[in-house]
Structure formats: C-alpha cells, structure tokens
Amino acid sequence: MLRSLHIENIAVIERADIEFSQGLNVLTGETGAGKSIVIDSIQAVLGGRTTRELVRTGAEKASVSAVFDGERAAEWCRENEIEEEEELLLQRRITAEGKSSCRVNGQVVSVSQLRELGALLIDIHGQKDGRQLMDERLHLG
Fold first, then answer.
1. What ranges in the chain are assigned the alpha helix state H?
2. Tally of CA atoms within 13 A in the half-sphere of 16 that contains its CB
3. 3-class state of residue 109 by DSSP
4. Is the pLDDT of residue 31 over 80?
C-alpha cells in the first residue's frame, strides 16, 4: 500500500506531501487543481516515462519519493539484492536536462528495475480505461 508521496518541483507543484490511509483514498478538485500532476508523479516514481518538461520552470531538478509497505515487494528486493525493510522507499530525480536517477531503499536501480517493481505495487487506471468493456468484440476475452 502507498503510504506517502513527496513531490518537489514537478510541473507547478513546488513542494507537496500527501499521506494515504488504509482503505479508499480519493483525489478530488476543480479542473487545474493538480490531480493529474499527482498521478504523473506517482507514475514517475514507479518507473514511468518522464521528460524534462515535468521539471518545474526555473528549477534545476525535480524529485518524487513514495513510501510503501514492504510486503508485496519482499521477493523482488531479495532477487535484486536490495535490503528489505518494513517500509519500501522509492525515489526518482529528474534534471532540467532530462536525466533521471532512481533509488529503492537508498540503492541505485535502473528505470527498468523501478518499472518492474512499480508493476508489483500499483495499477493506475485512467478515466477512459474502462471503454473496452463496452466493445462487444472484446467481451469474451
């Protein structure tokens, strides 16, 4: 479970800390309130594609950190020789030049490793993801 998210210099967000609790967590707000930026930040820290345009204008770098409970990733950590802890800390930094660095529990990992781990932790579904359910040709599958 995602416990907390720390965002710095992503798009228009200078700094934000978001705590998540057990059960359903809902992000709501007016258009332009920053909900998509939060989702983009989560995708970035899970190894998603990033560009330098994500870095806040005038900032040298952006960063996102996410803390998860470590249960679902224990085997992945063992396989990748990453020290297991009660909490799992994922970090991603993006420079204004577009370079990126990734860490899991303080150890440097590749973006592909971060993406692999991220797939074990969260599924993100957008508002149009369910449209395939309406296509009768896909019902059997």
1. 35-45, 74-79, 111-121
2. 19
3. strand
4. yes
Query: Which CATH code is given to the segment(s) 2-138?
Result: 3.40.50.300
Condensed to tens digits (0 to 9), the pLDDT of residues 62-121 reads 999 999 986 778 999 999 999 888 899 999 999 999 899 999 999 999 999 999 999 999
Residue in this structure with the two tokens 């057990």, named with its chain if needed: 22
Please state, in angstroms and as integers, the Cα–Cα distance from residue 118 to each residue in 12, 35, 44, 126, following that order.
24, 20, 10, 17
- pTM higher than 0.70: yes
The two counts, helices (H) then strands (E), for the chain are 3, 6
Q: How far apart are CA 42 and CA 130, in angstroms?
A: 20
Q: What span, in angstroms and rounded, lies between the C-alpha atoms of 42 and 40?
A: 5
How many Å apart are CA 45 and CA 48, to the nearest integer? 7
Amino acid at the residue 120: L
CA atoms of 64 and 23, how far apart (whole Å)? 23
